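Is this the right way to post structure tokens for a design question? Let me know if I should format differently. Anyway, here goes:
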């Protein structure tokens, strides 16, 4: 009887080990995305198709320190972006808390930056963003909270990052943009992932995917 008990225990341990292996295994490369359905394109770095593939376009915004933030700010950087507003009572506090998790994870990694766009730029002035940043322990060199022209921000959200579900309805900056999505952008300005910014498991997957991108050849 004792022998069978030992055998049963060994089987359980081996099963747990195998389960852990499955949970921690990850793909060697991430897909690319080019539109709002987030259909994955499995391309390799240097693929001819990437020459005309969707990229985040040029932009010009201002961060919590009153400094201009453009696409050049993220030159040769991996970055994670989202859309929020400082007076949001709903999803934004949780999103900000999870962006703080990402800030802590990559605080000493110069290759990774964070970018949060205000969807109420008319009220989220530079000073308001500065106060919010100080309250949330935002590290300016790592995490940019930006304001600017409403149309610029909304076009970036809907037409460039595809953060809002596309139901086939044309929207303008008069239609409020509100989304929990985080988007992962590689060093070549390509979209490589979208994640639920309210979900801890999704945020941990995002951290893993950033590390995968860093190892991409």
């Amino acid at each position: 009887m004792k022998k069978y008990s030992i055998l049963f225990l060994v089987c359980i341990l081996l099963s747990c080990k195998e389960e852990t292996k499955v949970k921690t295994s990850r793909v060697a490369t991430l897909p690319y995305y080019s539109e709002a359905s987030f259909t994955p394109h499995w391309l390799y770095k240097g693929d001819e198709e990437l020459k005309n593939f969707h990229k985040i376009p040029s932009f010009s915004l201002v961060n919590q320190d009153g400094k201009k933030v453009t696409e050049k700010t993220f030159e040769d950087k991996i970055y994670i972006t989202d859309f929020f507003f400082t007076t949001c009572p709903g999803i934004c506090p949780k999103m900000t808390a999870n962006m703080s998790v990402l800030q802590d994870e990559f605080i000493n990694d110069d290759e990774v930056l964070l970018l949060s766009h205000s969807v109420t730029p008319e009220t989220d002035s530079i000073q308001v963003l500065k106060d919010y940043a100080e309250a949330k322990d935002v590290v300016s060199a790592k995490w940019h909270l930006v304001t600017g022209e409403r149309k610029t921000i909304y076009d970036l959200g809907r037409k460039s990052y595809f953060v809002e579900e596309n139901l086939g309805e044309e929207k303008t900056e008069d239609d409020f943009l509100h989304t929990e999505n985080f988007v992962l952008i590689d060093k070549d300005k390509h979209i490589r992932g979208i994640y639920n910014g309210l979900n801890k498991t999704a945020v941990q997957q995002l951290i893993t995917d950033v590390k995968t991108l860093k190892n991409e050849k």
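Format looks fine. Someone answered above. Worth noting: The longest helix spans residues 2-24. Residues 133 and 155 are 24 Å apart (CA to CA).
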